[in-house]
Amino acid sequence: MTQSNDRSATTGSGFGGAVRRVLRTVVLMLVLLLVASIGLVIGKGSPDRVPSAEEVALSGASTAANGLASTATALERTVPVTNGSDYAELAEMFGIHALALRPAGATESPSPSVSPVVSSTPSPSTATTTPAPSPADLLAELTASYTESFEAAATVEPGPSRVLASAATAQWLQSRELAGRLDAAVPGIPVPEVRHDDLTEPACPLETTTLEEPEPGLDGARTAVLAEQRASYAYEVIAARADDPAPFLRRMAQHESAAALGAAVLAQHCVAEPLPAAAYALDDSFQSAPDDALRELESGLTVTYADLVGVSAPGPVREWALRQLVETAQHLAESVEGTSPKDAPGILPGIDPVEYPRLPEPAS
């Protein structure tokens, strides 16, 4: 009898323990599912999410542009009109940069049309700690801003690189103009030049280069080489009709060199260059208004290179595109004298404003 009772107790205890283990397992699973679901909800939009390199670069460039807009607005209110009448236009341009550079999903920034308020009679407590900025301060801020943006444009993923390079180019051009007015050293092109001897030998024999479905960056590079060939031809035609052909021939040679370097970059990736044609179709404007036609041609090249920066991977193709974007925008700016900062080569060189519908129209 005792043995029977012992066996019954043992059996009951074993069964109860098994049931409790099953219940604990089920409860644990439910708790884990609940925690996981809470984690999914909390994780969405969590401030603890690590931003990408692209988001960091865009956010930093947008913040820098906002700072430039504030400095330019302060200068417009403190610098005599004879020396600073264009600071308001610069403030507007930098404000538009801040909007265009803002990462997707970021908090809305104030409209660039709303200028920061600068008190005309600062209080004694702030007058000694926050002195009014000088044009030299703006130049230093510009240099830091475009330098950081160019460095980011060379290394981030395709896409954000385009607007970073475009804004940096515009800021660099404005730094050159400002440095000239201040009798300061005019900054040179801040993008390293890609040279033929910098390129490595292609991984495949030259005779195996192919045009079969090249990746977007390489296809864009072929388009750019073709555009340079056409530009060289246009300058050659106009030089033949000009009273002074020398400046047109110099620019023709520059376009020829750019096409040759682009072809070398393509060869490094085992992609054949587009063969130059004996002649290219030019519309009537190249004969009736050659200067305007050439400016339109150069403006189209800035778009071509900005596009290429935005689709190419970090490396020789993008580095070549960055350098050509800056050089072309510089030539375009120098060919149009007496224009405001909002004119050639534009608020965002190489980028059509309609691509950023949230941006305000520039003030007239």
Structure description:
With 364 residues, the protein is mainly alpha-helical. It is built from twelve helices and no strands. It has helices at residues 2-43, 53-78, 81-84, 87-101, 124-127, 135-153, 160-181, 216-241, 246-268, 285-288, 290-311, 316-335. It is globular and about 65 Å long. The chain starts with a helix and ends in a 29-residue tail after the last helix. The model is unreliable at 1-12, 26-44, 109-124 and 339-343 (pLDDT under 50).
Find the structural class using helix and strand composition.
mainly alpha
Morphology call: globular
Flag low-confidence runs. 1-12, 26-44, 109-124, 339-343
Rg computed from alpha carbons, rounded to a whole number of angstroms: 30 Å
Task: Name the average pLDDT.
Answer: 80
Helix tally?
Answer: 12
What sequence of helices (H) and strands (E) makes up the elements?
Answer: HHHHHHHHHHHH
The largest sheet, given as strand count, sense and whether it forms a barrel, is: none
Which strand-content bin applies to the residues? under 5%
Helix content: 55-70%
The number of distinct β-strands equals 0
The N- and C-terminal alpha carbons lie at a distance of 107 Å
Features:
364 residues, mainly alpha, 0% strand, globular, disordered N terminus
Topology, element by element:
Blueprint lengths: L1 H42 L9 H26 L2 H4 L2 H15 L22 H4 L7 H19 L6 H22 L34 H26 L4 H23 L16 H4 L1 H22 L4 H20 L29
